[in-house]
């Protein structure tokens, strides 16, 4: 049983720039049903992934800066306010919204790095709640991302609903999660981790790190020259 069952966007009530992003355009046309305990949204920069997650968070009742549900009154400052609507299940509201840009301002774990505070936070999350996480891998080493993978998988197994925006090929490997990839030409659902852009890019780099690095360095010199 999901906390959020479906997301819809009224294109006429949203800013033009938001509707022009592939993620918001897709939801406006088709809606976005959430059918798995863990949903992983990935894709290139600028396709509207974080805008969609922030709109979901505000519609649920989180403050736009992020944090624990119900702690502060949510403000009407996200670009999809009034345009994005949710179909919700009967479960009582509880959870956490991790917004990458403001996480360190709202977390209780002062004096710790971004990555350390994310791991400390996720280790304390309770199962019966909704978690919306925007790029939680930021600042985490590969080993720490594997630990985060285990934590999020355990939450999903124990009754939580988790929606993650991520570029991490490690987090995209969470067992049983639905992977949704947003590209400039549309949205594809139900991908295997091996078929995602993030995984394929990392695989190509690891297969020939020196060759890829030299190629990209030469490309950058040509762009700047």
Automatic annotation (TrEMBL):
* Gene3D superfamilies (alphabetical): P-loop containing nucleotide triphosphate hydrolases (3.40.50.300)
Q: Name one GO biological process term.
A: iron ion transport
The superkingdom listed in its UniProt entry is Bacteria
Q: Which UniProt keywords are present, listed alphabetically?
A: Cell membrane, Ion transport, Iron, Iron transport, Membrane, Transport
Q: Which GO terms describe its cellular component?
A: plasma membrane
Protein's cellular compartments:
Cell membrane
Molecular function terms in GO for this entry?
Answer: ATP binding; ATP hydrolysis activity
Pfam families associated with the record: AAA_21 (PF13304), AAA_23 (PF13476)
Q: Does the keyword Nucleus apply?
A: no
Membrane topology according to the record: Peripheral membrane protein
Q: Does the keyword Membrane apply?
A: yes
Entry-linked InterPro entries: AAA+_ATPase, ATPase_AAA_core, P-loop_NTPase, Rad50/SbcC_AAA, Siderophore_ABC-ATPase
Ranges for domain AAA+ ATPase: 35-186
Name used for this protein in its record: AAA family ATPase
Q: What is the lineage of its organism?
A: Bacteria, Bacillati, Actinomycetota, Actinomycetes, Mycobacteriales
């Amino acid at each position: 049983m999901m906390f959020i069952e479906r997301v819809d966007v009224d294109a006429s009530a949203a800013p033009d720039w938001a509707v022009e992003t592939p993620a918001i355009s897709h939801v406006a046309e088709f809606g976005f049903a959430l059918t798995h305990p863990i949903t992983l949204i990935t894709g290139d920069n600028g396709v509207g992934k974080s805008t969609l997650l922030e709109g979901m968070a505000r519609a649920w009742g989180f403050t736009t800066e992020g944090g624990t549900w119900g702690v502060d009154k949510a403000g009407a400052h996200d670009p999809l306010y009034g345009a994005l609507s949710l179909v919700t299940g009967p479960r009582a509201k509880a959870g956490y919204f991790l917004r990458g840009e403001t996480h360190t301002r709202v977390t209780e774990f002062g004096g710790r790095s971004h990555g350390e505070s994310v791991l400390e936070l996720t280790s304390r999350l309770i199962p019966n709640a909704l978690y919306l996480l925007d790029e939680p891998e930021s600042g985490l080493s590969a080993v720490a991302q594997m630990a985060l993978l285990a934590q999020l998988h355990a939450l999903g197994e124990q009754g939580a609903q988790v929606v993650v925006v991520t570029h991490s090929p490690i987090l995209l490997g969470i067992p049983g999660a639905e992977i949704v990839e947003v590209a400039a030409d549309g949205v594809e659902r139900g991908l295997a981790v091996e078929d995602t852009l993030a995984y394929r890019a990392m695989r190509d780099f690891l297969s020939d790190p020196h060759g890829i690095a030299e190629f990209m360095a030469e490309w950058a010199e040509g762009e700047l020259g």
